[in-house]
Design goal:
single chain; mainly beta; Lipocalin; 13-stranded antiparallel sheet; 10% helix; 70% strand; elongated; disordered N terminus
Length: 338
Amino acid sequence: MKSILLFFLSIGLSMPVFAQAGKLDKSVFRLKLAGVSGIYNSDWEKRNQDLSFVYWKLLEENWKDQNRGTGYRLGADYYASLKDPLFTHLLFGLSLSNLKGSFPTNRYNDTQIENLNYKSNLQQIELTFGTVISVFEPFRVIPKFVHRSINQTLTANKTIIISDTVDFGLIQGKESVQGRESSGYLGFGMEYDLTPNLTIYFDSLLFNNVLFQSSGKYSLASSSEGYLVSNGTVGVSNRVDGSSGSYKTHGNRFLLGTSLRVSDSTRIFVSAERDTIFTQIGTPFGTNLVVTSILSSRTVSATTDTINKTLAENLIYPIRQKIENTTIQIGISKDIDL
């Protein structure tokens, strides 16, 4: 690590002086692309475990491979020059980030085992409005407002095996969960030029529900179909479950990084980020329907347990959970003078 830092520092000192590494003297349009890798934990792990135990009477394992997440971040920023020595630029930005994870797990009791493998996708879209303040020559601060939209989806294929002394069942199905939310944040950034070409920077989202209150919804859908055998009688089981309600978030994000100017208009950067998003569900409403067809007698029966399922969800789902990501980002930015 020490040799890497010395390498970057030596390059920064030896390159010709174009301008301060993070400083802009005129209006600039900046494009950014970064690869993202690190830890990704979903808020639905604990929520699923609690509902499985209380309503389904199943134990659900901790989600495996939960500490792995990979993705990307795209960004476009416009710095409009104000030609003022203190308030140097207005900032208008748009960014898209995407983080994917895989969460295998099992649910089971003494007569049933259920195997699932969740594929998760966390997408964030941000609109940024801020200003660059040159406090003194190598140091700048960037207060800003950020409108952030979050969309998390989880999908899984599942296999259910039921077995006891008289019954056997093999059922295949799917599950999907989606949570959408948007709100306004106040953020704060800082930049300090170590050399004319090497800059360290800090960025954060600190306060939410600013101008835009957190507002969103979640939905859950599950379907399964398979064969049941009981005392020599064969039946076909079809089950459909659903749930929906409000979905709100709050939290904070902190980032620390360094950027190196490698040409007049190009920078490479490395940063570490911690993003904590607390999620809260309100007024959940659960539904289910089970239709069983007995093949030998050609009889069909239907049952539902909507009331008990909704009561269980209202007990479990409003408990606050969190999405937590700790990632490393390595990328490149390109400035276009306007």
